[in-house]
UniProtKB/TrEMBL annotation, chain B:
InterPro entries: ABC_transp_permease
One cellular component term from this protein's GO annotations in UniProt: plasma membrane
Pfam families for the chain: BPD_transp_2 (PF02653)
Molecular function terms from GO: transmembrane transporter activity
Major location category of this protein: membrane
Membrane topology: Multi-pass membrane protein
TM annotation in the entry: 7-27, 33-55, 67-90, 102-121, 133-156, 187-210, 222-251, 271-290
Protein name (record): ABC transporter permease
Annotated compartments: Cell membrane
Origin species: Sphaerochaeta halotolerans
Length: 366, 303
């Protein structure tokens, strides 16, 4: 019994399930406290997850497709945060990298060569490149000038937001909130998906996301580059002493992290919208990506699963609102999940306390 | 010149809440705890103040009393939410960036959720009258900010208490060894940052808008955080940084009415504080002014 408890505390996966459960528990209690029916929240979640509307027994596959589509940027931004996290960095800049990717993808979509098969590829590539530059800059500042990545990424998020406005307002047909429509050649919509999912927005971005998850896993677990990065994350000094180029590891990891977030921006720009957006605020995928990576323990598979959870919550928002449940409950659940993750360090203290007790018992101290 | 003088009241209006928050963040980092939740705590304070003020207005509470009580409630609730950060960072040795991020995420949910419950909308109901300016056209928030700066300077540099607090941020082990209670000091510091951020949020709502929406705080807390680093963790520097950033923000708003400034997009002024901070961090790198133990959990007895 005792052994299993210790193993549970030490298992990252089990702790993730626990914090998610606790987050939902707080949300459920809060809904009940304000006099609403928590069951309606779970009905909305069931519908977002399975497409099944329990109230009228109807099934609509579109909801499943939308959940997957929402989860694509969550997963990619989670990979961005997770990749940096494995190297011991805290990438709050996913939002800025995402915004830059989105902005450049929109620009290429509006101004690039309208060649079938080339146009959208170019736009997505540019989004990936600008994302990695935006992230790499943070890495260079950190590695060369010891500028805290927490502060610099927050600054770069806002620089990206306003830069995006300046650039997008110069685009053809720009009004205060949108540009002209993209040409067909720039879109990554998938007619087959659209048809079989009752006109959901699910698009080719899902394939790019799956490739990204595999790339993340491959670099991290299967290459010497990834090994060096993980070593840097575990113990910088030890890594340096064993000949791993720590400065390069840090700069490169931020660049790769930025590439994931930039890709997310490109996919949202070309997949979910048919025109360029003049942002009035942040989309928050980058910030939520922090939570996604934390729940997923910064592994490829964990992040993908956590991203699906967050995509499902986002898709359930509108359904909750229609059932008189304030949709902001999902943000509260997400926030509580992250707070519980921060508090998991208490489990380590608890483990130390147990160990101490055990040792005292063994040596017979009263 | 007269234009700049004419701008002063609006600059002060924008600077005051940023400065109040930044001073809180500075006290917190001086004690060794980094608080990136300032943004979220401001939002919570702003929402509380806006909701309290409009409800009291509807109940017929006299205007000045209502303003005072509303600000006070914002301050208290800001302090209450900062306890989460304190418990995580001080008792449980949690990663301070993660718990701060958690509070920021939570605040967007909690504030709008509360508005949905209280007012059936994704924002608080508009109040009729916020704070009024004095004969010079200056809001009382500016005087509050000045008081906060002077008090914090006196506390940190003129009282033994302040020296003890700073010691906890520089070398908690040494502080503990001479009998300073590191945990207590850090609790005080984190709670001050929560209280001041909550108060500042209320100041934003009562001077710059007529209700709380999800856009009310819009990065002010992060600007305050930048002002702490840019101001090199001392009250005078932080005040200067807050003024620089506040003036840039004021320009972004005013630029639309001044023909000479209209050639530039107003976003250029919005970007300014962030670019300046980033450049300054690079230029001053190498010389580290940050409290040396900031961000690190302190474990009693561990080397």
């Amino acid at each position: 019994m005792k052994l299993s408890r210790e193993r549970l505390i030490q298992s990252d996966g089990a702790v993730s399930v626990l914090v998610v459960f606790l987050g939902f528990l707080v949300g459920t209690i809060l809904i009940a406290l304000v006099g609403k029916n928590p069951l309606n929240m779970y009905k909305a979640i069931l519908q977002a997850l399975s497409g099944y509307n329990i109230d009228n027994g109807k099934m609509n596959i579109r909801y499943i497709a939308e959940t997957i589509n929402y989860s694509v940027p969550f997963i990619l931004c989670g990979l961005s945060m997770g990749f940096a996290n494995r190297v011991g960095l805290f990438n709050i800049g996913g939002e800025g990298q995402y915004i830059m990717g989105m902005t450049i993808a929109q620009m290429v979509a509006l101004l690039g060569p309208q060649v079938q098969g080339l146009h959208w590829v170019l736009a997505i590539l540019c989004a990936i490149i600008i994302g990695s530059l935006w992230g790499g800059l943070v890495g260079v500042l950190k590695a060369k000038y010891e500028v805290s990545e927490v502060v610099s990424t927050i600054m770069l998020n806002y620089i990206a937001l306003y830069l995006s406005r300046i650039i997008t307002l110069q685009m053809p047909g720009a009004t205060t909130y949108k540009t002209a429509n993209f040409p067909e050649t720039a879109l990554i919509t998938n007619d087959f998906f659209t048809k079989i999912t009752n006109y959901s927005l699910l698009n080719n971005g899902i394939f790019m996301m799956i490739i990204a998850v595999i790339v993340f896993w491959f670099i991290m677990e299967k290459t010497s580059l990834g090994f060096g990065m993980r070593a840097t994350g575990f113990n910088k000094e030890a890594a340096r002493a064993s000949g791993i180029p720590v400065v390069k590891s840090i700069a490169l990891s931020m660049a790769i992290a930025g590439a994931f977030a930039g890709l997310a921006g490109g996919i949202v720009a070309l997949g979910s919208f048919k025109y360029g957006r003049v942002l009035s605020g942040m989309d928050n995928y980058g910030f939520d990506g922090i939570a996604v990576a934390l729940v997923g323990n910064s592994t490829a598979l964990g992040t993908a699963l956590a991203g699906l959870l967050f995509g499902m919550l986002k898709n359930a928002q509108a359904l909750m609102q229609s059932k008189q449940i304030p949709k902001e409950i999902t943000f509260i659940i997400q926030g509580m999940i992250v707070i519980f993750i921060a508090l998991r360090s208490a489990l380590i203290l608890y483990q130390q306390y147990l160990d101490k007790k055990k040792l005292q018992k063994e040596v017979g101290v009263k | 010149m007269s234009m700049i003088l004419g701008m002063l009241p609006s600059v002060l209006m924008i600077v005051a809440p940023i400065l109040i928050t930044a001073i809180g963040g500075m006290i917190c980092e001086k004690s060794g705890v980094v608080n990136i939740a300032l943004e979220g705590l401001m939002a919570i304070g702003a929402c509380t103040t806006a909701a309290a003020h409009v409800l009291m207005e509807m109940a017929g509470v006299p205007h000045t009393l209502s303003l005072f009580l509303a600000l006070f409630m914002g301050l208290v609730v800001g302090g209450l939410f900062s306890i989460i950060h304190a418990v995580a960072a001080i008792n449980f040795n949690a990663d301070q960036t993660i718990s701060g991020t958690g509070i920021n995420l939570l605040s967007t949910g909690v504030t709008i959720f509360a508005s949905q419950i209280l007012f059936n909308a994704d924002r608080t109901k508009e109040f009729m009258m916020g704070m009024q300016t004095d004969a010079l056209g200056i809001y009382p928030t500016a005087y509050i900010a000045v008081a906060v700066v002077i008090l914090s300077w006196f506390l940190l540099y003129k009282l033994p208490f302040g020296m003890h607090l700073r010691a906890c941020g520089e070398h908690p082990g040494a502080a503990e060894s001479v009998g300073i209670n590191v945990k207590k000091m850090r609790y005080f510091a984190v709670l001050s940052s929560g209280v001041l951020a909550g108060l500042a949020g209320g100041c934003v709502v009562l001077t710059q808008t007529i209700q709380y929406t999800s856009n009310t705080i819009n990065g002010r807390g992060f600007i305050a955080l930048a002002a702490v680093s840019f101001g090199r963790w001392n009250p005078l520097g932080v005040t200067g940084a807050a003024f620089l950033f506040g003036t840039a923000q004021a320009f972004a708003i005013i630029a639309n009415n001044v023909p000479a400034l209209k050639v530039l997009p107003s976003e250029v002024f919005n970007i300014l504080p962030y670019v300046v901070t980033l450049v300054a961090l690079v230029l001053f790198s190498g010389k580290n002014y940050a409290p040396s133990a900031a961000g690190q959990p302190y474990e009693k007895g561990a080397s």
